[in-house]
Design brief:
This protein has five helices and two strands, in the order βααβααα. The protein is an all-alpha fold. It is globular.
Length: 136
């Protein structure tokens, strides 16, 4: 446990999520579908079963898996405490936006240094994107 979510392989995680979303096994296409977890313990066991290591922040004890139709607008609100904790980190001298590592790996370019205002604008844009966009 710790204070941040850690997923050790973003591609494997993405394949697991795609498997749940479609009912197809993207990790082992020759095997049956992977069951959608209903508890945090189920999720952690499923992750271990596919070779994925996930660490959740201290105090996280619940799990909500939501799948909706393309005809439904869904706005996902992040927890207030998480927004405020990130804002506090962005106020620190030398702050760097906590962008997932896979962006730098795919684009092979580090995130440039940003001013305080740019950090907060990026934070707002990422939250806005996270809250409304459907992926897929």
């Amino acid at each position: 446990m710790g204070d941040t979510l850690v997923i050790d392989n973003d591609i494997l995680w993405g394949k697991l999520v795609k498997s749940w979303a479609t009912g197809r096994n993207y990790i082992h296409p020759d095997r049956d579908a992977i069951a959608i977890p209903r508890t945090l313990e189920d999720l952690l066991q499923t992750a271990r079963d596919v070779g994925l290591h996930i660490t959740f922040p201290d105090g996280m004890v619940g799990l909500a898996v939501i799948q909706y139709s393309p005809q439904t607008a869904v706005i996902k609100l992040p927890p207030k405490a998480m927004v405020e904790a990130t804002e506090a980190k962005l106020e620190q001298p030398g702050a760097v936006y906590p962008m997932p590592e896979f962006y730098e790996e795919f684009f092979q370019v580090p995130l440039p240094a940003l001013s305080r205002d740019q950090l907060f604008d990026l934070h707002a844009a990422r939250i806005g994107d996270y809250s409304i966009r459907n992926c897929g």
